[in-house]
Amino acid sequence: MRNMIDALQWRYATKVFDANKKLTAEQSDLLLEAVRLSPSSFGIQPWRVIVVTNPEIRERLRQAGYGQPQITDASHLIVFVTKKNLSDSDVDEFIALTANTRGVSASGLEGYGGMIKQSLSGKSEEKRIEWASRQAYVALGVLLAIAAHEGIDACPMEGFDPSAFDEILGLSEKGLTTCVVATVGFRSEADQTARFPKVRFSQEELIKKVE
Fold first, then answer.
1. Is 211 part of a structural domain of the chain?
2. 111-149 per-position pLDDT tens digit
3. What pTM was estimated for this model as a whole?
């Protein structure tokens, strides 16, 4: 198994992908399964993932992404979207899934469901989207780490017009909005940034211990 620290040293935000190198079906499935297994607050997963491989759609998204070539040249474009306004019905759906998965009565989980509903009830739509986005970023982090472990390049991207992405992908009518995207594939030899030393603050600077 590849050392995780070595993998994180190796990874970087890939700027130039080799458009001729594609993920295998097994590699794609592994990354998406890792995303599915990502943790989230309450376990409710208030986000969804859209995998875009259609070249014409990706070209349009590239224009909405200020012309960044990763959007069209990477093997896969992964778009993390969040629900605009989580409701009690979303919580009920999650509670039903939990009961079914664990073989317990949904009525026995009413207290847990009520706690989630109460937590969400005090949030405006804007705050709910913000909260859901934080959960999506956890999933993004898992994706980046697993990709590095598997020797797959990736680039997390916030440089795009979310409203344009929403329109192109038809998200608004589904009650969804774009949060963040990631391109995954394999670096090109032409990407000079791959050879740049990794810049990170020291542990002494970043980490404070309370003992």
1. no
2. 999 999 999 998 999 999 999 999 999 999 999 999 999
3. 0.95
Residue type, 46: P
* Cβ(169)–Cβ(78) below 8 Å: no
Burial of residue 32, with CB atoms counted within 10 A of its CB: 0-12 exposed, 13-18 middle, 19 or more buried = middle
- Cβ–Cβ under 8 Å, residues 78 and 180: no
Domain count, the chain: 1
Q: What is the CATH number of the domain that holds 180?
A: 3.40.109.10
Containing structural domain, residue 26: 4-86+125-206
Q: In the numeric block, which tokens belong to residue 105?
A: 């009565």
- Three-class secondary structure of residue 138 per DSSP: helix
With beta carbons less than 8 A apart as the criterion, state whether 178 and 170 touch.
no
In a domain, residue 101? The reply is no
d(CA 24, CA 75): 10
